[in-house]
Amino acid sequence: MRNKQNDPLGLTTIADRPEHKRGTGSPRDESPSTSLGLNGKVAPTQVRSCVLTRATGTRDSLIRLALGPDGSVAPDVGARAPGRGAWIGVGRVALDAANAKGKLKGALARAFKSNELTIPADLGQRITDALRQATLDRLGLEARGGTLLSGSDKIESAARSGQVHLLLHAADASEDGNRKLDAAWRVGGSEQRGHQRGVVFPEDRPILSMALGRENVVHVALTDPAAAARVSRAIARWRAFIDPDTGLEGGDAARASGSTLKTEGQE
Asked: Which of 2, 62, 77, 183 could bridge across to 87 with cysteines, CB 3.0–4.6 Å?
C-alpha cells in the first residue's frame, strides 16, 4: 500500500493546472476554460463531463472511451480515435462496479445515443494497461529526446546542481539508494519545486529499463521542466485510476496532477 514514506507522489512540478467548471449535462461538453500553460501564458482548455458522475474536468483529468463502427467500446486514453467518444472520471474500482451492474452501459447508451453497445467485461483492465503503456511510451520519448538521465552518479551530480525537475525510483529500488538521491535532490532545491523526495514508479527496474531501452535502470531524472510535467501527468493519471482509495475524482494522485474533478453543485 502506498504511503508517504515509500510513494509520496510529489508531482507538483506540473505547470498547467486546469480550472474546472460545472457540467452542462452533456458528455461532450466543450465549455471553454483556461489553464496556465508551460510557457506561463493562459491557454484555453475544454471541459468534459464524466458520464457516470457528471463531474467535469479537462482531457487530462478524464479518460475517453471510443465507440467503434461495430458498436464495441474501447479505451482511448490519448483521445485520438475518430468518431463519437464519452468520458469517465472514476477510478477502476468504481468503473468495474458500474460495468458489472449495467450502470456503465446505460450511461454510455445515453452518451452515444445507441443501445447497440458491446462493453468488454475487462474494460477496467484494458484502461489500466493503456494508461501504463502511455506512461512507458512517454518515458521512452523523453529518453530519446535527451531530457532524461539514468545512472545514480549522473543523477546525483545533476540533482545537487539543481538540474533535476523530477526524480523517479523503480518500485524495487533499495531504500538506501532512494534516500541518497532524495538527499542530493533536496540539496539542489527540490523542496522549492514542491518535492520532498523522489516518486516511486509503479513498476520494477526490468520494465523501466525496457521502456528506456537501457540496461538496469533503477533511478530516472528529468532535467527539463516541460518534460517533467509531461511525465508527472502520465504517472498521476495512471495511479489515480488504479488506486482504489483515490480514483480520478479526487485524492492524492489526482490533486498532485491538478486533475481533481468538480461535481455538479460544487463551487
From this structure: 62
Confidence of residue 45 (pLDDT cuts 50, 70, 90): low
Helix 225-242 / helix 123-144 crossing angle, nearest 10 deg: 160
How far is the CA of 193 from the CAs of 4, 13, 16, 19, 229, in angstroms?
A: 17, 6, 14, 21, 12
d(CA 72, CA 201): 32
User: Cα–Cα distance between 103 and 220 in angstroms, integer?
Assistant: 41
Q: How confident is the model at residue 217 (pLDDT cuts 50, 70, 90)?
A: very high
Give the pLDDT band of residue 255 (cuts 50, 70, 90).
Answer: very low
**Residue 258 — very low, low, confident or very high, per pLDDT cuts 50/70/90?**
very low
Per-residue pLDDT at 247 exceeds 70: no
Using alpha carbons, select from 134, 166, 128, 160 the residue that is nearest to residue 147.
166
Would you report the helix, strand and coil content of the chain in percent, each value rounded to 5?
A: 40, 15, 45
Residue 17 is given by DSSP the state P
Residues in the chain: 267
Cell of residue 67, nine digits: 465507440
CB burial readout 121-137, b (16+ within 10 A) else e = eebbeebbebbbeebbe
Q: How far apart are CA 202 and CA 215, in angstroms?
A: 18
Alpha helices in the chain (DSSP H): 92-101, 103-112, 123-144, 152-160, 175-187, 205-212, 225-242, 252-256
Q: Which residue has the cell 518515458?
A: 139
- Average confidence (pLDDT) over 219-240: 95
